Protein backbone atom coordinates (compact mmCIF):
# COMPACT_ATOMS: atom_id res chain seq x y z
CA UNK A 1 0.00 0.00 0.00
CA UNK A 2 1.25 3.56 -0.69
CA UNK A 3 2.86 5.25 2.27
CA UNK A 4 0.65 7.90 3.86
CA UNK A 5 1.89 11.07 5.59
CA UNK A 6 2.62 10.58 9.30
CA UNK A 7 2.05 6.86 8.94
CA UNK A 8 4.66 4.19 9.62
CA UNK A 9 4.47 1.08 7.44
CA UNK A 10 5.43 -2.50 8.14
CA UNK A 11 8.39 -2.13 5.81
CA UNK A 12 9.64 0.83 7.86
CA UNK A 13 9.65 -1.30 11.01
CA UNK A 14 11.22 -4.31 9.29
CA UNK A 15 13.99 -2.24 7.73
CA UNK A 16 14.78 -0.63 11.08
CA UNK A 17 15.06 -4.01 12.83
CA UNK A 18 17.15 -5.57 10.07
CA UNK A 19 19.47 -2.59 9.93
CA UNK A 20 19.94 -1.91 13.65
CA UNK A 21 19.09 -4.91 15.84
CA UNK A 22 21.25 -7.90 16.67
CA UNK A 23 20.36 -11.24 18.27
CA UNK A 24 20.93 -10.57 21.98
CA UNK A 25 21.57 -14.11 23.25
CA UNK A 26 21.60 -17.79 22.34
CA UNK A 27 23.64 -19.72 19.82
CA UNK A 28 23.35 -16.95 17.19
CA UNK A 29 24.16 -14.09 19.55
CA UNK A 30 25.64 -11.05 17.82
CA UNK A 31 24.27 -11.86 14.38
CA UNK A 32 21.89 -9.41 12.64
CA UNK A 33 18.28 -9.85 13.75
CA UNK A 34 16.62 -11.07 10.57
CA UNK A 35 12.90 -11.49 11.06
CA UNK A 36 11.36 -14.75 9.97
CA UNK A 37 8.63 -14.65 7.31
CA UNK A 38 5.84 -15.16 9.86
CA UNK A 39 7.19 -12.33 12.02
CA UNK A 40 7.26 -10.02 9.00
CA UNK A 41 3.68 -10.98 8.16
CA UNK A 42 2.53 -10.04 11.65
CA UNK A 43 4.35 -6.71 11.49
CA UNK A 44 2.67 -5.93 8.17
CA UNK A 45 -0.73 -6.84 9.64
CA UNK A 46 -0.19 -4.45 12.54
CA UNK A 47 1.30 -1.45 10.74
CA UNK A 48 -0.44 -1.77 7.36
CA UNK A 49 -3.98 -2.13 8.69
CA UNK A 50 -6.12 0.21 6.55
CA UNK A 51 -8.27 1.03 9.57
CA UNK A 52 -5.25 1.82 11.73
CA UNK A 53 -4.34 -0.49 14.59
CA UNK A 54 -5.09 0.52 18.15
CA UNK A 55 -4.47 -2.88 19.74
CA UNK A 56 -2.73 -5.99 18.34
CA UNK A 57 -2.71 -9.37 20.04
CA UNK A 58 -0.15 -12.00 19.10
CA UNK A 59 -0.51 -15.29 20.95
CA UNK A 60 1.66 -18.33 20.42
CA UNK A 61 3.48 -20.93 22.47
CA UNK A 62 6.53 -20.20 24.58
CA UNK A 63 10.09 -20.06 23.20
CA UNK A 64 8.91 -18.63 19.86
CA UNK A 65 10.74 -15.35 20.40
CA UNK A 66 7.90 -13.30 21.93
CA UNK A 67 10.08 -11.17 24.17
CA UNK A 68 12.82 -10.62 21.60
CA UNK A 69 10.26 -9.45 19.03
CA UNK A 70 8.72 -7.17 21.64
CA UNK A 71 12.15 -5.71 22.41
CA UNK A 72 12.74 -4.97 18.71
CA UNK A 73 9.38 -3.21 18.37
CA UNK A 74 10.06 -1.18 21.51
CA UNK A 75 13.40 0.01 20.10
CA UNK A 76 11.74 0.91 16.80
CA UNK A 77 9.29 3.15 18.65
CA UNK A 78 12.06 4.57 20.85
CA UNK A 79 14.41 5.78 18.11
CA UNK A 80 13.14 4.42 14.79
CA UNK A 81 10.55 5.66 12.26
CA UNK A 82 7.57 5.84 14.69
CA UNK A 83 9.57 8.07 17.07
CA UNK A 84 9.95 10.71 14.36
CA UNK A 85 6.18 11.10 14.26
CA UNK A 86 5.84 10.99 18.06
CA UNK A 87 8.78 12.92 19.55
CA UNK A 88 8.95 13.41 23.33
CA UNK A 89 6.74 10.35 23.81
CA UNK A 90 6.57 7.73 26.52
CA UNK A 91 6.86 4.01 25.79
CA UNK A 92 6.30 1.17 28.22
CA UNK A 93 6.46 -2.57 28.45
CA UNK A 94 4.35 -4.17 31.14
CA UNK A 95 4.65 -7.57 32.78
CA UNK A 96 3.10 -9.23 35.80
CA UNK A 97 6.39 -10.01 37.53
CA UNK A 98 9.63 -8.10 38.05
CA UNK A 99 11.57 -10.92 36.42
CA UNK A 100 9.49 -10.84 33.25
CA UNK A 101 9.67 -7.05 33.07
CA UNK A 102 13.44 -7.14 33.56
CA UNK A 103 13.79 -9.75 30.81
CA UNK A 104 12.38 -7.53 28.06
CA UNK A 105 14.44 -4.55 29.25
CA UNK A 106 17.56 -6.74 29.37
CA UNK A 107 17.09 -7.94 25.79
CA UNK A 108 16.50 -4.41 24.51
CA UNK A 109 19.58 -3.15 26.39
CA UNK A 110 21.75 -5.87 24.91
CA UNK A 111 20.57 -4.95 21.42
CA UNK A 112 21.47 -1.31 22.07
CA UNK A 113 24.97 -2.22 23.25
CA UNK A 114 25.55 -4.45 20.21
CA UNK A 115 24.52 -1.80 17.70
CA UNK A 116 26.89 1.11 16.98
CA UNK A 117 23.95 3.11 15.63
CA UNK A 118 21.64 2.51 18.60
CA UNK A 119 24.34 2.87 21.25
CA UNK A 120 25.19 6.31 19.85
CA UNK A 121 21.68 7.66 20.45
CA UNK A 122 20.22 5.58 23.31
CA UNK A 123 21.14 5.92 26.99
CA UNK A 124 20.63 2.90 29.25
CA UNK A 125 19.56 3.36 32.86
CA UNK A 126 19.83 -0.02 34.51
CA UNK A 127 18.48 0.82 37.96
CA UNK A 128 15.25 2.38 36.71
CA UNK A 129 14.89 -0.02 33.74
CA UNK A 130 14.80 2.88 31.27
CA UNK A 131 16.09 3.56 27.75
CA UNK A 132 16.24 7.19 26.63
CA UNK A 133 16.72 8.71 23.19
CA UNK A 134 17.63 12.29 24.06
CA UNK A 135 17.70 13.43 20.43
CA UNK A 136 13.99 12.67 19.99
CA UNK A 137 12.99 13.10 23.62
CA UNK A 138 11.54 9.58 23.79
CA UNK A 139 11.73 7.37 26.84
CA UNK A 140 11.06 3.65 27.31
CA UNK A 141 10.51 2.07 30.73
CA UNK A 142 9.79 -1.49 31.88
CA UNK A 143 6.99 -1.81 34.43
CA UNK A 144 5.74 -4.72 36.52
CA UNK A 145 2.48 -5.23 38.38
CA UNK A 146 4.51 -6.14 41.47
CA UNK A 147 6.46 -2.91 41.70
CA UNK A 148 4.53 0.10 40.55
CA UNK A 149 1.36 1.81 39.43
CA UNK A 150 0.94 3.36 36.01
CA UNK A 151 -1.34 6.22 36.99
CA UNK A 152 -0.11 9.58 35.77
CA UNK A 153 1.67 8.15 32.72
CA UNK A 154 0.86 9.02 29.10
CA UNK A 155 2.13 6.26 26.78
CA UNK A 156 1.95 6.34 23.01
CA UNK A 157 3.25 2.77 22.66
CA UNK A 158 2.75 -0.22 24.96
CA UNK A 159 3.87 -3.82 25.00
CA UNK A 160 2.00 -6.14 27.37
CA UNK A 161 4.36 -9.08 27.81
CA UNK A 162 2.78 -12.42 28.91
CA UNK A 163 -0.60 -10.93 29.80
CA UNK A 164 -1.82 -14.53 29.95
CA UNK A 165 -0.36 -14.73 33.46
CA UNK A 166 -3.17 -12.50 34.73
CA UNK A 167 -5.76 -14.60 36.54
CA UNK A 168 -9.30 -13.28 36.40
CA UNK A 169 -10.79 -10.57 34.20
CA UNK A 170 -8.92 -7.57 35.55
CA UNK A 171 -5.40 -6.19 35.91
CA UNK A 172 -4.89 -2.79 37.51
CA UNK A 173 -1.62 -2.29 35.59
CA UNK A 174 -3.22 -3.15 32.24
CA UNK A 175 -6.21 -0.91 32.86
CA UNK A 176 -4.12 2.01 34.07
CA UNK A 177 -1.84 1.90 31.04
CA UNK A 178 -4.63 1.41 28.50
CA UNK A 179 -6.70 4.29 29.84
CA UNK A 180 -3.60 6.49 29.94
CA UNK A 181 -3.22 6.42 26.14
CA UNK A 182 -6.26 8.64 25.61
CA UNK A 183 -4.15 11.79 25.27
CA UNK A 184 -2.67 10.55 21.97
CA UNK A 185 -4.26 10.40 18.54
CA UNK A 186 -2.68 7.16 17.31
CA UNK A 187 -1.49 5.09 20.27
CA UNK A 188 -0.52 1.47 19.74
CA UNK A 189 -0.81 -1.35 22.26
CA UNK A 190 0.69 -4.74 21.48
CA UNK A 191 -0.06 -7.83 23.54
CA UNK A 192 2.38 -10.71 23.06
CA UNK A 193 1.60 -13.73 25.20
CA UNK A 194 0.89 -17.41 25.55
CA UNK A 195 -2.80 -18.01 26.24
CA UNK A 196 -4.31 -17.76 29.70
CA UNK A 197 -5.70 -20.80 31.49
CA UNK A 198 -9.43 -20.11 31.35
CA UNK A 199 -12.07 -18.26 29.33
CA UNK A 200 -12.67 -15.89 32.24
CA UNK A 201 -9.10 -14.57 32.35
CA UNK A 202 -8.31 -11.12 30.96
CA UNK A 203 -6.32 -12.22 27.92
CA UNK A 204 -8.98 -14.76 26.92
CA UNK A 205 -11.66 -12.06 27.08
CA UNK A 206 -9.56 -9.74 24.88
CA UNK A 207 -8.80 -12.50 22.37
CA UNK A 208 -12.42 -13.61 22.08
CA UNK A 209 -13.58 -10.05 21.57
CA UNK A 210 -10.94 -9.52 18.87
CA UNK A 211 -11.83 -12.78 17.13
CA UNK A 212 -15.45 -11.60 17.01
CA UNK A 213 -14.19 -8.60 14.94
CA UNK A 214 -16.15 -6.11 16.98
CA UNK A 215 -13.47 -3.44 16.51
CA UNK A 216 -11.60 -2.99 13.20
CA UNK A 217 -8.82 -1.23 15.12
CA UNK A 218 -8.08 -4.40 17.12
CA UNK A 219 -6.19 -7.25 15.46
CA UNK A 220 -5.50 -10.75 16.75
CA UNK A 221 -3.40 -13.64 15.54
CA UNK A 222 -3.81 -16.80 17.57
CA UNK A 223 -1.37 -19.64 16.94
CA UNK A 224 -2.95 -22.54 18.81
CA UNK A 225 -3.45 -26.27 18.38
CA UNK A 226 -7.11 -27.37 18.02
CA UNK A 227 -8.17 -29.33 21.09
CA UNK A 228 -9.43 -32.22 18.95
CA UNK A 229 -6.06 -32.77 17.26
CA UNK A 230 -3.56 -35.34 18.49
CA UNK A 231 -1.63 -33.19 21.01
CA UNK A 232 1.60 -35.13 20.53
CA UNK A 233 1.69 -35.12 16.72
CA UNK A 234 4.30 -32.87 15.11
CA UNK A 235 1.78 -31.25 12.78
CA UNK A 236 -0.36 -30.31 15.78
CA UNK A 237 2.66 -28.81 17.53
CA UNK A 238 3.55 -26.72 14.49
CA UNK A 239 0.17 -24.96 14.58
CA UNK A 240 1.05 -23.29 17.89
CA UNK A 241 4.76 -22.82 17.22
CA UNK A 242 5.53 -20.72 14.13
CA UNK A 243 9.26 -20.87 14.94
CA UNK A 244 9.27 -24.68 15.13
CA UNK A 245 12.42 -26.09 13.55
CA UNK A 246 13.90 -22.62 13.11
CA UNK A 247 15.03 -20.82 16.24
CA UNK A 248 12.78 -23.10 18.31
CA UNK A 249 14.45 -26.48 18.72
CA UNK A 250 12.21 -29.19 17.26
CA UNK A 251 14.15 -31.81 19.21
CA UNK A 252 13.47 -30.07 22.53
CA UNK A 253 9.77 -29.57 21.82
CA UNK A 254 9.22 -33.15 20.67
CA UNK A 255 10.99 -34.35 23.81
CA UNK A 256 8.56 -32.28 25.91
CA UNK A 257 5.69 -33.88 23.99
CA UNK A 258 6.95 -37.36 24.84
CA UNK A 259 7.34 -36.41 28.51
CA UNK A 260 3.76 -35.14 28.62
CA UNK A 261 2.48 -38.23 26.84
CA UNK A 262 4.21 -40.47 29.38
CA UNK A 263 3.34 -38.36 32.43
CA UNK A 264 -0.22 -36.96 32.56
CA UNK A 265 0.88 -34.71 35.44
CA UNK A 266 2.67 -32.65 32.80
CA UNK A 267 0.04 -32.74 30.05
CA UNK A 268 -1.92 -29.64 31.04
CA UNK A 269 1.27 -27.60 31.33
CA UNK A 270 2.35 -28.94 27.95
CA UNK A 271 -0.98 -28.06 26.37
CA UNK A 272 -0.87 -24.53 27.73
CA UNK A 273 2.79 -23.66 27.13
CA UNK A 274 3.61 -25.72 24.03
CA UNK A 275 0.23 -26.03 22.26
CA UNK A 276 -0.98 -22.60 23.44
CA UNK A 277 -4.34 -23.96 24.54
CA UNK A 278 -6.50 -22.63 27.35
CA UNK A 279 -5.85 -25.27 29.95
CA UNK A 280 -5.80 -25.02 33.71
CA UNK A 281 -2.39 -26.31 34.71
CA UNK A 282 -3.48 -28.79 37.37
CA UNK A 283 -3.23 -32.53 36.89
CA UNK A 284 -3.14 -35.90 38.56
CA UNK A 285 0.40 -36.29 39.83
CA UNK A 286 1.21 -39.58 38.16
CA UNK A 287 -0.44 -41.70 35.49
CA UNK A 288 -2.47 -44.62 36.92
CA UNK A 289 -0.67 -47.11 34.69
CA UNK A 290 2.72 -45.97 35.99
CA UNK A 291 1.57 -46.28 39.60
CA UNK A 292 0.07 -49.71 39.02
CA UNK A 293 3.26 -50.79 37.28
CA UNK A 294 5.03 -50.34 40.64
CA UNK A 295 2.58 -52.55 42.55
CA UNK A 296 5.04 -55.28 43.50
CA UNK A 297 4.99 -56.91 46.93
CA UNK A 298 6.51 -54.90 49.77
CA UNK A 299 9.57 -56.55 51.31
CA UNK A 300 10.64 -56.75 54.94
CA UNK A 301 12.10 -53.41 56.03
CA UNK A 302 13.52 -54.44 59.41
CA UNK A 303 17.08 -54.81 58.14
CA UNK A 304 17.40 -51.60 56.13
CA UNK A 305 17.58 -47.92 56.97
CA UNK A 306 14.11 -46.42 56.64
CA UNK A 307 12.61 -42.97 56.19
CA UNK A 308 9.08 -41.83 56.91
CA UNK A 309 6.54 -39.11 56.28
CA UNK A 310 3.70 -38.25 58.62
CA UNK A 311 0.71 -36.21 57.45
CA UNK A 312 -1.36 -35.28 60.49
CA UNK A 313 -4.97 -34.55 59.62
CA UNK A 314 -7.61 -32.52 61.27
CA UNK A 315 -8.97 -34.50 64.19
CA UNK A 316 -11.85 -36.07 62.23
CA UNK A 317 -10.06 -36.80 58.96
CA UNK A 318 -7.48 -39.16 57.48
CA UNK A 319 -4.00 -39.32 59.03
CA UNK A 320 -1.20 -41.02 57.10
CA UNK A 321 2.20 -42.49 57.96
CA UNK A 322 4.38 -43.81 55.14
CA UNK A 323 7.64 -45.65 55.76
CA UNK A 324 10.04 -46.34 52.88
CA UNK A 325 13.20 -48.39 52.71
CA UNK A 326 15.49 -49.46 49.90
CA UNK A 327 15.94 -53.16 49.15
CA UNK A 328 18.03 -54.25 46.17
CA UNK A 329 17.79 -50.84 44.55
CA UNK A 330 14.01 -50.53 44.88
CA UNK A 331 12.07 -48.36 47.31
CA UNK A 332 9.54 -50.41 49.28
CA UNK A 333 6.56 -48.49 50.64
CA UNK A 334 4.71 -49.38 53.81
CA UNK A 335 1.75 -47.07 54.61
CA UNK A 336 -0.49 -46.81 57.65
CA UNK A 337 -3.74 -44.83 57.79
CA UNK A 338 -6.04 -43.80 60.62
CA UNK A 339 -9.57 -42.47 60.87
CA UNK A 340 -11.90 -42.03 63.84
CA UNK A 341 -13.91 -45.18 64.38
CA UNK A 342 -17.15 -43.44 65.31
CA UNK A 343 -19.13 -42.31 62.26
CA UNK A 344 -16.90 -44.21 59.84
CA UNK A 345 -19.82 -45.67 57.88
CA UNK A 346 -21.50 -42.28 57.52
CA UNK A 347 -18.20 -40.77 56.39
CA UNK A 348 -17.84 -43.55 53.82
CA UNK A 349 -21.29 -42.88 52.40
CA UNK A 350 -20.77 -39.11 52.28
CA UNK A 351 -17.38 -39.37 50.54
CA UNK A 352 -18.39 -42.36 48.37
CA UNK A 353 -15.21 -44.06 49.52
CA UNK A 354 -15.21 -47.53 51.19
CA UNK A 355 -13.41 -46.49 54.39
CA UNK A 356 -15.52 -48.92 56.42
CA UNK A 357 -14.65 -51.83 54.15
CA UNK A 358 -10.94 -50.91 54.19
CA UNK A 359 -11.07 -50.84 57.97
CA UNK A 360 -12.53 -54.37 58.06
CA UNK A 361 -9.81 -55.56 55.66
CA UNK A 362 -7.04 -54.02 57.79
CA UNK A 363 -6.00 -51.34 55.31
CA UNK A 364 -7.27 -48.57 57.56
CA UNK A 365 -6.83 -48.33 61.32
CA UNK A 366 -9.44 -46.66 63.48
CA UNK A 367 -9.06 -44.79 66.73
CA UNK A 368 -11.75 -44.63 69.42
CA UNK A 369 -14.30 -41.81 69.35
CA UNK A 370 -15.11 -39.10 66.86
CA UNK A 371 -11.59 -37.73 66.43
CA UNK A 372 -8.09 -39.02 65.77
CA UNK A 373 -6.39 -39.94 69.03
CA UNK A 374 -2.90 -38.46 68.91
CA UNK A 375 -2.06 -40.62 71.90
CA UNK A 376 -2.85 -43.66 69.79
CA UNK A 377 -0.72 -42.36 66.89
CA UNK A 378 2.21 -41.56 69.21
CA UNK A 379 2.11 -45.06 70.68
CA UNK A 380 2.08 -46.57 67.20
CA UNK A 381 5.06 -44.43 66.16
CA UNK A 382 6.99 -45.70 69.19
CA UNK A 383 6.33 -49.27 68.06
CA UNK A 384 7.54 -48.47 64.52
CA UNK A 385 10.75 -46.85 65.73
CA UNK A 386 11.38 -49.92 67.91
CA UNK A 387 10.73 -52.22 64.95
CA UNK A 388 12.49 -50.35 62.12
CA UNK A 389 15.69 -48.35 61.77
CA UNK A 390 13.91 -45.09 60.94
CA UNK A 391 16.57 -42.48 60.33
CA UNK A 392 14.31 -39.51 59.59
CA UNK A 393 10.59 -38.91 59.91
CA UNK A 394 9.31 -35.84 58.03
CA UNK A 395 6.31 -34.01 59.40
CA UNK A 396 4.27 -30.93 58.65
CA UNK A 397 4.45 -28.64 61.66
CA UNK A 398 0.68 -28.07 61.43
CA UNK A 399 -0.86 -30.06 64.33
CA UNK A 400 2.55 -31.40 65.40
CA UNK A 401 2.44 -29.28 68.53
CA UNK A 402 -0.58 -31.35 69.59
CA UNK A 403 1.24 -34.63 68.88
CA UNK A 404 4.55 -33.82 70.56
CA UNK A 405 3.31 -34.10 74.19
CA UNK A 406 2.00 -37.57 73.40
CA UNK A 407 5.33 -38.50 71.82
CA UNK A 408 7.07 -37.57 75.05
CA UNK A 409 4.53 -39.55 77.04
CA UNK A 410 5.08 -42.54 74.71
CA UNK A 411 8.77 -42.59 75.65
CA UNK A 412 10.46 -40.42 73.02
CA UNK A 413 13.03 -38.04 74.46
CA UNK A 414 13.42 -34.43 73.38
CA UNK A 415 16.84 -35.34 71.99
CA UNK A 416 15.44 -38.27 70.01
CA UNK A 417 12.68 -36.11 68.51
CA UNK A 418 15.22 -33.45 67.61
CA UNK A 419 17.46 -36.01 65.88
CA UNK A 420 14.84 -38.02 63.99
CA UNK A 421 11.77 -35.82 63.44
CA UNK A 422 12.31 -33.37 60.59
CA UNK A 423 9.99 -30.44 59.92
CA UNK A 424 9.06 -30.55 56.23
CA UNK A 425 7.49 -27.48 54.63
CA UNK A 426 4.42 -27.91 52.47
CA UNK A 427 5.33 -25.11 50.08
CA UNK A 428 7.05 -25.20 46.69
CA UNK A 429 10.60 -25.02 48.04
CA UNK A 430 10.40 -28.31 49.93
CA UNK A 431 7.76 -30.20 47.96
CA UNK A 432 9.04 -29.55 44.43
CA UNK A 433 12.37 -31.45 44.73
CA UNK A 434 10.65 -34.21 46.72
CA UNK A 435 8.01 -34.63 44.00
CA UNK A 436 10.74 -34.74 41.39
CA UNK A 437 12.54 -37.53 43.27
CA UNK A 438 9.33 -39.50 43.75
CA UNK A 439 8.32 -39.06 40.14
CA UNK A 440 11.75 -40.23 38.99
CA UNK A 441 11.73 -43.52 40.94
CA UNK A 442 8.15 -44.24 39.89
CA UNK A 443 8.96 -43.70 36.21
CA UNK A 444 11.98 -45.97 36.50
CA UNK A 445 9.95 -48.68 38.22
CA UNK A 446 12.08 -48.46 41.37
CA UNK A 447 9.10 -48.58 43.77
CA UNK A 448 7.12 -51.44 45.29
CA UNK A 449 3.94 -50.30 47.04
CA UNK A 450 1.88 -53.49 47.12
CA UNK A 451 -1.23 -51.80 45.65
CA UNK A 452 -2.38 -50.56 49.04
CA UNK A 453 -5.92 -49.31 48.27
CA UNK A 454 -5.92 -46.26 50.56
CA UNK A 455 -2.53 -45.09 49.33
CA UNK A 456 -3.63 -45.64 45.74
CA UNK A 457 -6.74 -43.53 46.32
CA UNK A 458 -4.59 -40.71 47.69
CA UNK A 459 -2.16 -40.85 44.75
CA UNK A 460 -4.93 -40.90 42.15
CA UNK A 461 -6.65 -37.95 43.82
CA UNK A 462 -3.46 -35.88 43.91
CA UNK A 463 -3.27 -32.76 41.78
CA UNK A 464 -0.07 -30.81 41.17
CA UNK A 465 0.03 -27.01 41.01
CA UNK A 466 2.94 -24.95 39.78
CA UNK A 467 4.32 -21.45 40.30
CA UNK A 468 5.82 -19.14 37.66
CA UNK A 469 9.27 -20.62 38.19
CA UNK A 470 8.07 -24.17 37.50
CA UNK A 471 8.18 -25.36 41.12
CA UNK A 472 5.45 -27.83 42.05
CA UNK A 473 3.51 -29.04 45.05
CA UNK A 474 0.48 -31.18 45.78
CA UNK A 475 -2.68 -29.16 46.29
CA UNK A 476 -5.33 -30.42 48.70
CA UNK A 477 -7.69 -27.66 47.59
CA UNK A 478 -7.61 -28.64 43.93
CA UNK A 479 -7.48 -32.39 44.43
CA UNK A 480 -10.54 -34.56 43.91
CA UNK A 481 -10.41 -36.10 47.38
CA UNK A 482 -8.08 -37.00 50.22
CA UNK A 483 -4.38 -37.01 49.31
CA UNK A 484 -2.81 -37.43 52.78
CA UNK A 485 -1.04 -40.65 51.83
CA UNK A 486 0.53 -39.08 48.75
CA UNK A 487 1.74 -36.14 50.85
CA UNK A 488 3.27 -38.49 53.43
CA UNK A 489 4.94 -40.55 50.68
CA UNK A 490 6.36 -37.40 49.09
CA UNK A 491 7.77 -36.20 52.42
CA UNK A 492 9.31 -39.62 53.08
CA UNK A 493 11.07 -39.55 49.72
CA UNK A 494 12.03 -35.93 50.35
CA UNK A 495 14.11 -36.84 53.41
CA UNK A 496 15.31 -40.21 52.14
CA UNK A 497 18.25 -38.89 50.09
CA UNK A 498 19.27 -36.72 53.05
CA UNK A 499 19.18 -39.44 55.68
CA UNK A 500 22.34 -41.08 56.94
CA UNK A 501 22.40 -44.46 58.66
CA UNK A 502 22.14 -43.96 62.39
CA UNK A 503 22.50 -46.44 65.21
CA UNK A 504 18.83 -46.18 66.13
CA UNK A 505 19.01 -48.95 68.75
CA UNK A 506 21.76 -47.09 70.60
CA UNK A 507 19.75 -43.89 70.62
CA UNK A 508 16.64 -45.65 71.88
CA UNK A 509 18.67 -47.26 74.63
> What would you call the shape?
elongated
How many individual domains?
Answer: 3
Helix and strand composition category: alpha/beta
Give the tally of β-strands. 18
Number of helices: 21
What profile does the largest beta sheet have? Answer: 8 strands, mixed
Broad CATH class of the largest domain: Alpha Beta
Strand content: 15-25%
Question: Kindly, what is the distance between the CA atoms of the first and last residues, rounded to a whole number of angstroms?
Answer: 90 Å
Strand order of the largest sheet: 3-4-5-2-6-7-1-8
Given as residue ranges, the uncertain stretches (5+ residues, pLDDT < 50) are 1-5, 498-509
Mean pLDDT: 88
- Helical percentage: 25-40%
Please tell me about this protein's structure.
The protein has 509 residues and is α/β, with parallel strands linked by helices. It is 40% helix and 18% strand. Strand 10 and strand 11 form a beta hairpin. Helix 19 packs across helix 20. The protein is elongated, with a radius of gyration of 29 Å.
Amino acid sequence: MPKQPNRVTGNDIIHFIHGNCFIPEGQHVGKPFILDNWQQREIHRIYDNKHGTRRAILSFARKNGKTSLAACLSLAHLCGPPAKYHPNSQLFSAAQSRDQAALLFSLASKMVRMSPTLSAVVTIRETSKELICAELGTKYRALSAEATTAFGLSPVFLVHDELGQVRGPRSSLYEALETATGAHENPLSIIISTQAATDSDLLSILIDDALAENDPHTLVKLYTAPVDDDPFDEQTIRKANPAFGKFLSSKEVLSMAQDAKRMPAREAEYRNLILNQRVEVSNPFIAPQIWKGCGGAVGQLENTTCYAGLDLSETADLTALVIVGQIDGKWHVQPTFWMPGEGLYERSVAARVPFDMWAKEGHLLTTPGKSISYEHVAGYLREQFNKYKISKLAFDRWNFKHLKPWLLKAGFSEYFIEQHFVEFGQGMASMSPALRDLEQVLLEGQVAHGNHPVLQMCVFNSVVVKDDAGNRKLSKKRSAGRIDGAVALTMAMGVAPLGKPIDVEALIA
